From TrEMBL:
Sequence similarity: Belongs to the F420H(2)-dependent quinone reductase family.
Coiled-coil annotated residue ranges, if any: none
Protein name per its UniProtKB record: Nitroreductase family deazaflavin-dependent oxidoreductase
Entries under Pfam families matching the protein: F420H2_quin_red (PF04075)
Length: 202
């Protein structure tokens, strides 16, 4: 059987929103996912998985690539190469209640907001961090260029999503390829600041 030349490629992982938070154990079980879906849909999130999609990159590779992305944050040339900024996304685990941090690709959304995509490289399932956001959309932070910003997460739908998707795929065409790999509509999420950004303590 011919192997997919893109499987596990750094470009796929680095250009995609990370498919699992560093330190998380595994994706939710089916019954638990149903509970999350009920809660999330009340907040406007659609957490349904698809029936087909690309293969998930092995966890050890994902963790190494996460570290690579984190080490390169702040490099303007790197961000230009990737077509998007790198945000450090902090969510609260929907089961553990512990904070989870992972790098994701971010796009300016206007009025100080950011757009992120729960792409997971085009796999059939949503990334684990997406379930955390869906369960607690008001317990999210992003870090960018040394600043920490508390944000509220909202999933976009309809014309609003279509407009944002056009912006995202124009800046970073690989997201269109991720969408092509799966029948799951990749969630587009707007992160709107709740307060002024803060700088890290010296």
């Amino acid at each position: 059987m011919k192997r997919n030349s893109h499987h596990g490629a750094p470009e796929e992982r680095l250009l995609d929103s990370a498919d699992e938070p560093t330190g998380s154990a595994h994706l939710p079980a089916a019954a638990e996912t149903d509970d999350i879906q009920i809660t999330a849909e009340r907040a406007g999130f659609d957490t349904r998985a698809g029936a087909r999609g690309g293969r998930r990159t092995p966890r050890p590779i994902r963790r190494r690539l996460d570290k690579l992305v984190m080490n390169r944050i702040g490099h303007r040339a790197y961000r230009r190469l990737m077509g998007c900024d790198t945000l450090v996304l902090t969510t609260v685990g929907h089961r553990s209640g512990a904070e989870r941090t992972t790098p994701v690709g971010g796009f300016p959304g206007g009025n100080g907001s950011w757009l992120i995509v729960a792409a997971a490289g085009g796999t059939a399932t949503n990334p684990a961090w997406y379930y955390n956001i869906a369960a607690r959309p008001d317990k999210v932070r992003i870090g960018i260029e040394g600043r920490q910003v508390a944000v509220t997460a909202v999933q976009l739908h309809g014309a609003e999503r279509a407009q944002a998707w056009q912006q995202i795929t124009t800046a970073a065409p690989q997201f269109a390829w991720f969408q092509h790999r799966t029948d799951r509509e990749l969630p587009v999420i707007r992160l709107t600041p709740r307060s002024r950004p803060t700088s890290p303590r010296s």
